[in-house]
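Lecture 7 notes: from sequence to structure.
We start with the chain below.
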Amino acid sequence: MNLKTVKSFFFFLPAVAAVFFLFLSAAANASDFFVDSDGDGYGDTQEIASGYSPVNPQNIKIEKSDMDADGLSDYWELIFKTDLLNADSDNDGFPDGQEIDFAYNPLSGSKEKLSASVEINLQDQKLRYLVGGQVWKEFSVSSGKASMPTPTGTYKIINKVQKAWSKAYGLWMPYWLGLDKGQFGIHELPVWPSGYREGAAHLGVPVSHGCVRLGVGPAQYIYERLSVGATVTIK
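Predicted structure tokens for the same chain:
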């Protein structure tokens, strides 16, 4: 029994199983179930069920395989139904991975947008960036401390300010995304006028005054990908 056969027991892992059934539902007829696209001696459905790419003959897990080098792993190619062997499925000049990252439909050359939203879980102190309903990225945050908790609920981003100033606390809040009439928001770790950046050691711990703090890098990433009107769910 070789490695691929042994790892077929991972069939029941939720993420792999989801891709497996997605692939089965897309098959045109029963003969498609026995296709071996990469010619490695294993059928496509067997490889997907075992967590491997159906187009990569190497012994590499599907989430690590990117056969067309478009920044979208073969796992995500199956999820978004893009071409696993074509870096630009819609031939619009932008690789599939870049389009997904900015919530554009990689199957449409007309700049059609996919849904882009954020979910913040206060219990595990995580912000999740969703594209087309799929969790695309995840970052640690620092939400409000016990005496000043971050409000829960569903909100819309009402404004964006690259470097917002807090009159209440006398500090800068880079990459501000305002929520709930601007009463609180999402922003990068705050910076005092002296240049001191607060909270770098507290990501993952609720210590803020109610806002949701993101680290340096993730805050700019989220700021550049969410538009005014995007949905933010806090629970």
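Points to note: The longest strand covers residues 134-142. Strands lie at 116-121, 126-131, 134-142, 153-156, 159-166, 171-179, 184-188, 212-214, 231-234.
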